[in-house]
Write a structure and sequence with these properties.
13 helices, 11 strands, globular
Length: about 325
């Protein structure tokens, strides 16, 4: 049995005029592309649903199946497939373009229409859903049932993830994400390993996904949002993807290392603060860039800011 590494977790504190008001506990781990734990804070085997941090790997169904070539899809289309976007006009139009190229009607999207919006195109997962539908169209698989776990497109996606993690597909625990698509329960070290592989440059299909995300970061989240700003400011050195309930994953491009973060209480603000602290510790960003990110995501107002207590223990 592999040695189990367990160190002190990280604590994020919300300070109101210097006085601690709230605390968040955070687990984090760095792995290489072979899944070896390089550094850790807390329990690297802590389990959680990967949520939207799975999207770059769901997009492997598109890049590995000839869909991009068949329908003349672009890297911008691929970037929106990997996104948790804001539903802007530009982003919704990009999703529509995918469907148009594949001769699929927008009403085939089964993600919900967000409150106050007019179309499922504006849902933050619509790009992912459009990618799944594109694969179904190319393979002549049913479009109406593409979200079912036993649908061929979901089996294809799970098979890709299982292959990367050297696990049988039937060992994964799945559940419905908020958009209706399957997501999977994983250990943090597995998430970090996935992003290490994504960032390694060893696989042409994943390399294309990374290129799309880093060349068009404004489509992956949106202006002023964490994933977009990390990729924009790092100028192609980091690939970043958030997930709900306190999940944040980052890959160091060209070095085959992945960082996975989980905030125990699901806090979004805490995961960003920890991510900035840890990529600073790892030397993945220049200090001035880390300072810029901290100013945006750790200083919440004139009266409130986040501080991070703890760091990764190198193994």
């Amino acid at each position: 049995m592999a040695k189990r590494h367990h160190t002190h977790a990280i604590e994020v504190q919300l300070l109101r005029e210097g006085i601690v008001e709230s605390k968040h506990q955070v687990q984090a781990v760095v792995c290489d592309r072979r899944g070896r734990v390089l550094s850790v804070a807390g329990d690297p085997e802590f389990g959680s649903f990967i949520r939207s941090a799975l999207k770059p790997f769901q997009a492997l169904a598109v890049t590995s199946s000839g869909v991009m070539e068949r329908y003349n899809l672009s890297d911008r289309d691929l970037a929106i497939m990997c996104s948790s976007h804001r539903g802007t006009i530009e982003q919704a139009r990009q999703v529509f373009r995918i469907l148009w190229q594949c001769a699929i009607e927008p009403d085939q999207l089964q993600c919900p229409t967000p409150a106050g919006k007019r179309s499922p195109l504006e849902h933050n997962c619509s790009g992912k859903h459009a990618g799944m539908l594109a694969v179904c169209q190319q393979r002549q698989w049913p479009l109406t049932t593409y979200l079912k776990r036993n649908h061929p497109v979901q089996s294809l996606i799970l098979g890709k993830v299982a292959e990367l993690l050297h696990m049988p597909p039937d060992e994964f625990i799945g559940a419905r994400d908020d958009c209706g698509a399957p997501t999977y329960f994983m250990q943090l070290n597995q998430m970090a390993s996935l992003f290490g592989q994504l960032a390694s440059g060893d696989n042409l299909d994943m390399e294309r996904i990374v290129r799309a995300m880093t060349h068009y970061p404004e489509l992956v989240a949106g202006e002023g949002h964490f994933d977009t700003e990390v990729m924009r400011l790092s100028q192609g050195e980091l690939v970043s993807k958030s997930g709900s309930e306190g999940i944040q994953c980052i890959g160091r491009i060209g070095q085959g290392m992945g960082l996975a973060i989980k905030v125990a209480d699901g806090s979004k603000r805490a995961k960003y603060a920890v991510a900035i602290q840890l990529i600073r510790q790892l030397g993945w960003l220049e200090p001035e860039i880390a300072d810029t990110l901290a100013e945006r995501f750790c200083v919440l107002s004139h009266f409130k800011r986040l501080t991070v207590e703890g760091e990764l223990a190198m193994l």
